[in-house]
Amino acid sequence: MIPEDLNTNKYLFVRKGGIMELKQISLTIPNSLLKASKSYSEELGYRNIQELILELLRNKVLAEKIERYKQIERDMKDAKKLSQKEAVNYIKNI
Length: 94
Prior knowledge:
By secondary structure, the chain is mainly alpha-helical. The protein has 3 helices and 2 strands. It has a domain at 31-94. The chain has helices at residues 31-43, 49-77, 84-92, and strands at 14-15, 18-19. The chain has a two-stranded antiparallel sheet. β1 and β2 (18-19) form a beta hairpin. The longest helix has 29 residues, at 49-77.
């Protein structure tokens, strides 16, 4: 079973059983970065800069969550056998 944090469907527009609720935000960036981003998104075939930003955010969030889980797995390989209470304390302090 995939951990909930690594379930990529939760970061996409369409979910099983319906459409994900979207939230509009305001983003302020330097004009030069906006121009470069628009050009980059057009070159890569995005319909607009919003699609590019959404994909970048999804990739960043997923990559960091995956790395965090991998680090926990590496740490746990070297961990000694813990009682339930010790395991809970260990995980809280990671």
